[in-house]
Design goal:
single chain; about 180 residues; alpha+beta; YbaK protein; 5-stranded mixed β-sheet; 3-stranded antiparallel β-sheet; globular; Cys-tRNA(Pro) deacylase; YbaK/aa-tRNA-synth-assoc-dom; aminoacyl-tRNA deacylase activity; YbaK/aa-tRNA-synt-asso_dom_sf
């Protein structure tokens, strides 16, 4: 039987994440908000949560050693300090990973990287402020989904290092104090 390149052959990335969570009996929920949430303030407003509860999962790679890959998880309203990430992971000279590296290491495309469930073992550092919340929302495997999960589960599942990896808050909008 011949198949065209339909979704049955390649299930959505969110399905892969859902299966990962089910296999490990993680109390987490994949949600599909149904509206675009390109910024942290819009995502927080749509979900009715504080901006700090929207977490970003950023993949970094070594500037000279691309095999040095790390994932930083931080509140969406704070800037990630690359030097602090490198120090926490024991890497020097990090940069944002290229999209091909993100896909290879995490198993998800940029914009949908979840804080857990990566396709290869990745060294993870989570900002200590994320642990201030009982649950957070992060990438859900693709741009249409978000994952609601407890920070304790993120740390347990990824064996994350907990550290201070952020600096100044991200401005809410130009011209307004943050």
């Amino acid at each position: 039987m011949s198949h065209s390149g339909d979704a049955a052959q390649h299930p959505p990335a969110s399905d892969k994440l859902r299966e990962y969570l089910r296999e490990r009996a993680v109390d987490a929920t994949l949600i599909q908000p149904g509206s675009d949430m390109p910024t942290v303030p819009l995502a927080a407003a749509a979900l009715g949560v504080e901006p700090g509860q929207i977490v970003k999962s950023i993949v970094f790679e070594g500037k000279k050693q691309r095999d040095q890959v790390g994932l930083a998880i931080a509140p969406g309203d704070l800037r990630v300090d690359v030097s602090k990430v490198g120090a926490a992971l024991g890497y020097t000279s990090l940069k944002l990973a290229q999209p091909d590296t993100v896909l290879r290491a995490a198993g998800y495309a940029v914009g949908g990287v979840p804080p857990v469930g990566h396709s290869t073992p990745i060294r993870v550092v989570i900002d200590k402020r994320v642990l201030d919340y009982p649950f957070v929302y992060g990438g859900g495997g693709d741009e249409q989904h978000m994952l609601r999960i407890s920070p304790a589960d993120i740390v347990r599942l990824t064996e994350a290092v907990v550290a201070d990896i952020t600096s100044v808050p991200v401005p809410a909008s130009p011209g307004k104090p943050s």
